[in-house]
Write a structure and sequence with these properties.
The complex is a heterotrimer of chains A (265), B (681) and C (314). Chain A has 265 residues and is an alpha/beta fold. Chain A has a domain at 123-255: Rossmann fold, CATH 3.40.50.12280. In chain A, 25% of the residues lie in helices and 14% in strands. Chain A is built from 8 helices and 10 strands. In chain A, the strands form 3 sheets. Chain A has a 5-stranded parallel beta sheet, with helices on both faces. In chain A, helix 6 (185-197) links the parallel strand 8 and strand 9 (203-207). Chain A starts with a helix and ends in a 10-residue tail after the last helix. Residues 260-265 of chain A have low confidence and may be disordered. By secondary structure, chain B is mostly helical. Chain B contains 29 helices and 8 strands. In chain B, a hairpin with a 7-residue loop joins strand 4 and strand 5. In chain B, helix 2 packs parallel to helix 5 (117-136), helix 9 (213-231) runs antiparallel to helix 11 and helix 16 packs antiparallel against helix 18 (435-462). The mean pLDDT of chain C is 91. The two termini of chain C are 35 Å apart. Helix content of chain C is 68%, strand content 1%. Classes of the chains: A alpha/beta (265), B mainly alpha (681), C mainly alpha (314). Chains in contact: A-B, A-C, B-C. Chain A binds chain B through residues 170-172, 187, 189-191, 193-194, 196-197, 199-200, and chain B through 568, 570, 572-573, 575-580.
Chain lengths: 265, 681, 314
C-alpha cells in the first residue's frame, strides 16, 4: 500500500537535518572559496592590479593609502585573488561573513584583515526574537540566486524552523525583512511600504551583494544601490549569492544561538 | 372588562384618531406626520402593554368572545375575542407598529413636499388597525373583513411610490396573490362551516372531528395554500421578494415583521384549534415545506445584491423555520406527545416574535442606509460604519440575531427548535422520524448560510471603503430613526438574554393550542438557564455566556499589562503588497463574495454569465468591459410562468363565450336555470 | 446554580495552556514525518509571548469592528473550551451550553473573523471571508448530524451527559453508527481547523489561503489572540471528537488521583488524533476549492448513514 510503504520509508530514513550548529558545519563546495582576507601590509608600493580587475569597483586604493576591499560590493569572483602578485588578497575558505555594520565589511586597514563578524542584537531584541523570529522576504529586482539560497534554508537538511525562524505571508506578522536584490526603482515604493507595514520593533537583513550595495547593477540609474538607501539595515550578509551556510550563520549570530539549538554561543 | 382589554380599545381608538388626523391635516405635511405616526406609536405602545399584561397575568386565557354587532341573518355577527394566541400576535404587531412609527417620524421626512405624507401615515394607522383586528377576530366574518382590509391597505402602501414602473407591477402582483390566498382561506372556512354550522371561532373549535377524512384534508390543504401564500412559504413565495423591496422601508419592515405572521397565526389557529387530531402526514408536510423554504430562502438571499431583496428572501427563510416548528408540533400532537408538541410550538412562536424584532430592525436599518445613500444596491455602498456608526452597530446586532448566533434571540429560538427536533427522533416508530434529524441538519445549513449572507450584507455595505460618491457622502440618520431601531434592538437583546421570561408568558398560548403549558419546565436556576423538558436534557444560558465571555477578556488584558506595556498602536495603510494604494474598486464585491456558493449550488441556480469586452489590440487591455450575471428563479421560470401562460391561453379560448349578443346571454341564463332546477330535483 | 470553581479555573488553565502545546505537537509530528527536526513543541508559546510584546499596525480603513474581532473570537473559543468535557466529565459550563451552544459559539467567532477580513478593505481578506463562510456552511449539516447521532445515542445535547451515557459501554465504538459518525466528524474537523486537504495552514500564496487570508492585517497582541483562539478551537474540536466517541478514562469528579488519570488519557487520545491528522496531511494534497464540497458532501453522507444505522439498529 502506498501510505504504508511511504511511512516505512520515512521512518527508515530518520531525521535528515544536519547537526550544525551543535555539530560541525557542512563543508563548502570546492569552487566556493569562502571569505576574503586582505593583508595590505603585503601590497607593493604602487600596485593596483586588483583595482582594475574588480567588476564592481569594490577595491579602491587612494595614492599613498592602503588598499580597501569593500566586501559588500564584492561578487566573490576571486579575480583579485588571481591578479594579486603579492598574495595580499587570499581566500579563507571560511563561511562566516555576516556583519552588523556597513563599515565592518570594508577590509584592508590595520586590524581589518577579515570581516568583523556580527554581534548579537541588543538584549531587548534578543529576548523578543531569540526564540521566535518571523521574516518577510522582499525580492527587490535581483537575479533570484539569493532567494534560491535563502529558500534552501527551509529544506529538510537545513530546517530553519527548528530555530523558531520562519518566513511569513504578511509583513504584519513579521518581525523583520530579509531583502535580496538591488532594489530597482519599481520596487522602491514596495520596499518602503513593506517596511512601514512591519510592526515595531523590527530588524532588516540585507542578503547578497545586490541588497548591500547594488551588486553587478551598482551605479545603474534604475536601481537604488542596495536596501541601505531606503531602510536601516541591521545585518549584512555578503556574497553573490551567499552560501546558505553564510546566511544561516548570520541569522544565528544575530540571535546569539550559535552554541547549538539550546542557545548560547 | 379587564384593564388590558381597555388598553386594546384605547389602542384601536389611537389608530383611528391617527388615521383621521393624518387625513385631515394632510395639507400640512409635517403636522400630519407627527400626528399620524405619533398616534400610531401611542396605539402601538398601548397594544403592546395590553398584549403582554394579558399573557403575563393569565387574563387572556379567561376571556370570552364579545359580540359587538348582531345582524338580521342568524350567522351574521361580528365577534371579537382576545384569547392568548391573539394577545401574543397583538403584542408582536403593536411592538413593531410602535417602533416603526417612531422611526417613520424621521424617515417620512424624506417624502415631505414630494408626496402626501398624511396619506402614508393614515394608511399606516389603518393597516395597524386592520392587522390587530385580524388577530382579535372572534368569527370568520371579522377575520375575513380584516384580512381583506389588510390586503388592500398593504397594496396601497406598497404602491406608495407609484411613479416607478417596477413598483406598480410589484404591487399588482402582490394584490393578485393576496386575493388568491383570500379565496383559498374563504373556501377553507366554508368547508369548516358545513360541518359546524357556526361561523364563530368558539363554534369552530374542534370541528375537525365532525368532518370526514377527505373534507379535513381538503380544508387543511386549502388553508395551507391560503395562509402559505400570505406567509411566503415556498413554492407560494414568489410575490415576497418582489413586493417587499419596493415599498417604503418602514412599510417593508411592517410587512416582513407582521403581515406575513398573519399566515402563521392562521395556520396555528386552524390546525391546532379547529381541525385538531391531525394525521401524521400533515405535520410532515409542513415540516418538509418549512425545511425547503428555509434552505431555498437563504440560498436565494445569498445571491442578492439588493439589500432589501436580500432581507425579503431571509423572511422566507425564517418563515420556513417557524413552519418547521409548527410541523414538528403537529407531528407530536399526532403521536400523542403533548410536552414535545408544546416545546415545538414554543420554538415556532418564539421564533415568530424574534423574527419580527430582528427583521424589523434590519429593514429599518436598510431604510436608514437607503435614506443616507439613496441606493439599495450593495455594490455601491461601503465605509458606512464610519459615517453612520450607530446605524451600523444596530444593523450588526440585527445581523448577529438573524444568523442565530449566541447570545441573541435567533440562537435561542433555533436552540428550542433543535431540541424539539432531536427529541422527535424517539417519538415515533414511523420512517418519518428520520425527518427530524434531517430537518435539523438542514436547519444547521440554513443557519450557517444565513451567517454567510449577513457577513456579506453587513461587510460589503458598511465596512471597508465607500464604493461610490453616494456612500461617501452618507451621513448619520435623524435621531427618531435611530430610536426606532434601538427599541427593536432592545427587544432582541431582551428576548435573547432572558428567554425564560417571555417563554413563561407564552405558557397560556401553548396551553390553549396543545393543552400543555410547559409551566416552569423550561427554566432552571431561577430563570437564568433555559432548559429543554426532560431529565438530563440540554440547557443553555445566553446571559451567563455573555457574562463569562466578558470576564474571559481579562486574560488578554492581563497579558497585555504584563508583557506588552511598551507596545504601541500605529495607523498605516492596508497591506496591499506594495502597490500604490488600495482603491475601493479593489475591494471584494457582493457578487464576488457569494461566488463560491453560486458555483457549489449551480444545479439550483443555473447561473448565467456574460462578459463583453471592447478592445483594440489585445483583449487584456480592454477599452470597456461589461459583465452580467444572474441566477434563474426556479419557481418563477418553471411554475409560475408556464401557469400564467396556460391560464391566459385557456382564457382566450373561453372568451369565445363572450359573444356580445343579448340573445346568447339570455340563452346562457335559461340553460343555467334549467341545470339548477334539474339538479335540485 | 452551582458551578464548581475548581473545575472552572482548572479547565480554563488547561484549555489556555494545552492548545498551543497541541498545535506545537502537530507541527513537530509533521516535521518528524518529513524527516526533519522541526520546531520544538513549545514554539507556539514563544510566538504568542512575542506577539503580545510587539506593537500593532492597524489599517486606516479599519473600524471598531476590526478591534472587536480578536476579543470576540478569543472569548468564544475559550468559552467553547469550557463546555467540552476534557479530562473530567463535568465540564464547568455544562449548564450554560452543550453541543448546540458550542457550535453556536464557534459560529459567532467565525462570523466576526470574517467581518475582520472585510474591514480593512483588502481583496485578500474578502476572499478569505467568502471562502471560510462557504466551507463552514457546507460543513455544518455534516457536523450537526454527527452531533445529533451522538446526542440521540446519549439522550441529551449536554456534552457531559453524552460522555456519561457512553462511559462503560466499551463495545460502543464498534457500532456502525458510532464509526460512521466519527468518520464524518473527522472530516469536519479537518475543515473546521483548516488542515490539508481543505486548507493549507502554512501557505504563503494568498490565492490558496482560507483562514490565513482573514488575519493578514492583524499584528501584535490582536494576532496573538487570534492565533491562540484558533488553537483553542482546534483543541475543542479534538477534545469533542475524542470524548464523544471514546468516552472512557475521564475523571468522574475533581479528585486529584482521578484527574491525573483523566489528563493521562486525554493526552493519549489527543496524541492519537494528532497522529491521525498528521497522517492525513502527509498523504494528501490540498484540494481545489470547488472540490472541497465533494469531500464535505461525503461527510454528510457518512453522517446520514450513521443516523440511519441508529434508526435501524435501535
Amino acid at each position: 500500500m502506498f501510505i504504508h510503504d511511504t511511512i516505512l520509508n520515512r521512518l527508515k530514513r530518520g531525521c535528515e537535518t544536519m547537526d550544525y550548529p551543535a555539530g560541525d558545519a557542512p563543508a563548502l563546495p570546492d569552487r566556493h572559496g569562502g571569505g576574503l582576507r586582505v593583508e595590505s601590509a603585503r601590497c607593493a608600493a604602487d600596485c593596483s592590479a586588483c583595482v582594475s580587475v574588480c567588476p564592481t569597483e569594490a577595491i579602491t586604493r587612494a595614492s599613498g593609502q592602503a588598499v580597501a576591499l569593500d566586501l559588500g560590493r564584492c561578487l566573490f569572483c576571486a579575480e583579485c585573488v588571481r591578479a594579486c602578485p603579492d598574495r595580499a588578497i587570499t581566500q579563507t575558505g571560511d563561511h562566516r561573513l555576516a556583519a552588523r555594520l556597513r563599515e565592518d565589511l570594508v577590509l584592508g586597514g590595520t586590524g581589518k584583515e577579515q570581516v568583523r563578524l556580527a554581534a548579537a542584537l541588543n538584549e531587548r531584541l534578543r529576548g523578543l526574537f531569540g526564540r521566535s523570529l518571523k521574516l518577510r522576504q522582499v525580492s527587490a529586482g535581483g537575479c533570484n540566486a539569493c532567494e534560491a539560497d535563502t529558500n534552501v534554508l527551509g529544506t529538510i537538511g537545513w530546517d530553519l524552523g527548528r530555530f523558531g525562524i520562519q518566513f511569513v505571508a504578511s509583513p504584519r506578522h513579521a518581525d523583520g525583512l530579509l531583502i535580496t536584490g538591488p532594489v530597482s526603482k519599481n520596487m522602491a515604493l514596495a520596499l518602503q511600504k513593506t517596511y512601514a507595514a512591519v510592526p515595531d520593533p523590527k530588524i532588516v537583513i540585507a542578503v547578497g551583494a545586490c541588497a548591500i550595495a547594488g551588486g553587478p547593477f551598482v551605479g545603474h540609474s534604475q536601481v537604488s544601490d542596495g536596501a541601505g538607501a531606503l531602510v536601516p539595515v541591521d545585518l549584512f550578509v555578503p556574497g553573490c549569492p551567499p552560501h546558505p551556510l553564510t546566511i544561516l550563520d548570520g541569522l544565528l549570530r544575530l540571535l546569539d544561538r550559535l552554541g547549538g539549538p539550546s542557545g548560547k554561543g | 372588562m379587564d384593564y388590558p382589554a381597555i388598553l386594546l380599545i384605547v389602542a384601536a381608538c389611537a389608530y383611528v384618531a391617527g388615521m383621521a388626523g393624518a387625513l385631515l391635516l394632510r395639507r400640512v405635511g409635517r403636522l400630519a406626520l407627527s400626528v399620524g405616526f405619533g398616534l400610531a406609536a401611542v396605539g402601538g405602545a398601548c397594544g403592546f402593554l395590553s398584549g403582554v399584561t394579558s399573557l403575563a397575568t393569565g387574563q387572556a386565557a379567561a376571556r370570552g368572545a364579545v359580540t359587538f354587532w348582531s345582524g338580521p341573518a342568524p350567522n351574521l355577527r361580528l365577534v371579537i375575542q382576545a384569547d392568548p394566541l391573539s394577545c401574543f400576535f397583538v403584542t408582536i404587531v403593536s411592538m413593531l407598529g410602535a417602533a416603526i412609527a417612531i422611526y417613520s417620524l424621521g424617515y417620512s421626512g424624506a417624502y415631505l413636499g414630494r408626496k402626501s405624507v398624511g396619506l402614508l401615515a393614515a394608511l399606516y394607522n389603518a393597516l395597524l388597525l386592520a392587522t390587530t383586528l385580524t388577530f382579535v377576530a372572534g368569527n370568520v366574518w371579522v377575520f375575513l373583513i380584516a384580512w381583506e382590509m389588510m390586503a388592500l391597505l398593504a397594496y396601497g402602501l406598497v404602491t406608495f411610490e407609484h411613479e416607478d414602473r417596477e413598483t406598480r407591477g410589484a404591487a399588482v402582483f402582490y394584490f393578485i396573490m393576496s386575493h388568491i390566498d383570500a379565496v383559498c382561506v374563504m373556501l377553507g372556512f366554508l368547508v369548516l362551516f358545513q360541518a359546524a354550522g357556526d361561523f364563530s371561532f368558539d363554534g369552530l373549535r374542534g370541528v375537525g372531528a365532525k368532518l370526514s377524512s377527505g373534507q379535513r384534508d381538503t380544508a387543511f390543504l386549502l388553508f395551507v395554500v391560503g395562509f402559505g401564500i400570505k406567509a411566503g412559504l415556498v413554492p407560494l413565495h414568489v410575490w415576497l421578494p418582489v413586493a417587499h423591496p419596493v415599498a417604503p422601508s418602514n412599510v417593508s419592515a411592517l410587512m416582513s415583521g407582521v403581515l406575513i405572521k398573519t399566515g402563521i397565526y392562521g395556520i396555528a389557529r386552524v390546525c391546532f384549534e379547529f381541525l385538531g387530531g391531525p394525521p401524521l402526514w400533515w405535520g410532515a408536510l409542513l415540516l418538509a415545506l418549512g425545511t425547503v423554504s428555509a434552505v431555498l430562502g437563504v440560498l436565494y438571499a445569498l445571491m442578492e445584491h439588493d439589500l432589501k431583496r436580500l432581507l425579503a428572501y431571509h423572511s422566507i427563510e425564517n418563515i420556513g423555520i417557524i413552519v418547521m416548528g409548527l410541523g414538528a408540533s403537529l407531528m407530536f400532537v399526532s403521536t400523542g406527545h403533548p410536552v414535545l408538541a408544546a416545546l415545538a410550538l414554543a420554538a415556532a412562536l418564539y421564533h415568530t416574535i424574534n423574527h419580527a424584532s430582528f427583521k424589523g430592525l434590519l429593514f429599518l436599518g436598510a431604510g436608514s442606509v437607503l435614506h443616507a445613500t439613496h441606493t439599495r444596491n450593495m455594490e455601491e455602498m461601503g465605509g458606512l460604519v464610519k459615517r453612520m456608526p450607530q446605524t451600523a452597530m444596530l444593523f450588526l446586532l440585527g445581523a448577529v440575531a438573524i444568523s442565530a448566533l449566541p447570545p441573541l434571540n435567533g440562537f435561542v429560538s433555533e436552540w428550542l427548535t433543535y431540541q424539539a427536533l432531536l427529541q422527535g427522533f424517539g417519538s415515533t416508530d414511523s420512517l418519518l422520524r428520520l425527518m427530524f434529524p434531517v430537518g435539523g441538519a438542514m436547519l444547521a445549513l440554513t443557519g450557517a448560510l444565513a451567517a454567510a449572507c449577513f457577513v456579506k450584507a453587513f461587510g460589503i455595505s458598511f465596512l471597508a471603503q465607500p464604493r461610490s460618491q453616494a456612500a461617501e457622502r452618507a451621513r448619520e440618520v435623524p435621531a427618531s430613526m435611530r430610536l426606532g431601531m434601538a427599541l427593536l434592538a432592545i427587544a432582541c437583546l431582551f428576548l435573547g438574554l432572558f428567554p425564560t421570561v417571555f417563554l413563561g408568558w407564552l405558557g397560556p398560548v401553548m396551553n390553549q393550542l396543545t393543552g400543555e403549558a410547559l409551566a416552569g419546565r423550561l427554566s432552571l436556576a431561577g430563570g437564568w438557564v433555559l432548559a429543554a423538558p426532560g431529565a438530563n436534557a440540554g440547557s443553555v444560558s445566553t446571559a451567563a455566556m455573555t457574562l463569562f465571555g466578558l470576564s474571559f477578556l481579562l486574560v488578554p488584558l492581563f497579558l497585555r499589562r504584563m508583557l506588552g506595556r511598551r507596545a504601541k498602536t500605529v495607523r498605516g495603510p492596508t497591506w496591499d503588497c506594495g502597490l500604490q494604494g488600495l482603491t475601493p474598486r479593489m475591494e471584494y464585491s457582493a457578487t464576488g463574495f457569494s461566488k463560491p456558493l453560486r458555483m457549489i449550488f449551480k444545479a439550483l441556480f443555473r447561473p448565467h454569465r456574460e462578459v463583453q469586452r471592447e478592445y483594440e489590440f489585445s483583449p487584456y487591455f480592454a477599452r470597456s468591459l461589461r459583465f452580467e450575471s444572474h441566477v434563474e428563479e426556479v419557481f418563477e421560470e418553471r411554475i409560475y410562468r408556464p401557469t400564467r401562460f396556460w391560464i391566459l391561453r385557456v382564457s382566450r379560448r373561453v372568451r369565445a363565450l363572450q359573444q356580445g349578443s343579448l340573445q346568447v346571454y339570455l340563452l346562457y341564463i335559461f340553460l343555467t336555470l334549467l341545470g339548477l332546477l334539474l339538479w335540485a330535483v | 446554580m452551582n458551578i464548581d470553581i475548581t473545575s472552572l479555573i482548572a479547565q480554563t488553565a488547561l484549555v489556555l495552556l494545552l492548545s498551543p502545546l497541541l498545535s506545537g505537537l502537530i507541527a513537530s509530528l509533521k516535521a518528524k514525518l518529513q524527516n526533519r527536526r522541526g520546531p520544538r513543541v513549545w514554539q507556539p508559546f514563544f510566538d504568542l509571548i512575542k506577539f503580545f510584546r510587539k506593537d500593532m499596525v492597524i489599517s486606516e480603513h479599519a473600524s471598531g469592528v476590526f478591534a472587536a474581532v480578536p476579543h470576540v473570537v478569543f472569548a468564544t473559543a475559550l468559552m467553547a473550551g469550557l463546555m467540552v468535557p476534557l479530562a473530567w466529565v463535568p465540564a464547568p459550563l455544562q449548564l450554560f451550553g452543550g453541543a448546540l451552544a458550542l457550535v453556536g459559539l464557534l459560529a459567532l467567532g467565525r462570523f466576526f473573523l470574517a467581518l475582520g477580513g472585510l474591514d480593512p478593505g483588502s481583496a485578500f481578506g474578502g476572499m478569505g471571508s467568502s471562502r471560510e463562510m462557504t466551507i463552514s456552511a457546507i460543513a455544518e449539516p455534516a457536523m450537526m448530524l454527527a452531533i445529533f447521532t451522538a446526542a440521540i445515542a446519549g439522550g441529551s445535547t449536554n456534552l457531559s451527559q453524552i460522555v456519561m451515557a457512553g462511559d462503560g459501554h466499551a463495545g460502543r465504538f464498534l457500532e456502525p453508527a458510532h464509526t460512521l459518525a466519527f468518520s464524518a466528524m473527522f472530516i469536519v474537523l479537518l475543515a473546521e481547523t483548516g488542515r490539508v486537504p481543505v486548507d493549507n495552514p502554512a501557505t504563503h500564496l494568498e490565492l490558496t489561503m482560507i483562514h490565513e487570508a482573514m488575519i493578514l492585517e492583524y499584528s501584535g497582541r490582536y494576532l496573538a489572540m487570534l492565533e491562540w483562539a484558533a488553537s483553542m478551537k482546534q483543541l475543542v474540536l479534538f477534545g469533542l471528537l475524542a470524548n464523544l466517541f471514546f468516552p472512557f478514562g475521564l475523571a468522574p469528579g475533581m479528585l486529584p488521583a482521578a484527574v491525573a488519570q483523566g489528563m493521562g488519557w486525554l493526552a493519549i487520545k489527543l496524541v492519537g488524533l494528532a497522529v491521525a491528522v498528521v497522517l492525513v496531511e502527509f498523504t494528501n494534497a490540498k484540494l481545489r476549492l470547488f472540490r472541497v464540497p465533494d469531500l464535505l458532501g461525503a461527510a454528510f453522507v457518512l453522517a446520514t448513514l450513521a443516523l440511519v444505522s441508529l434508526f435501524l439498529f435501535r
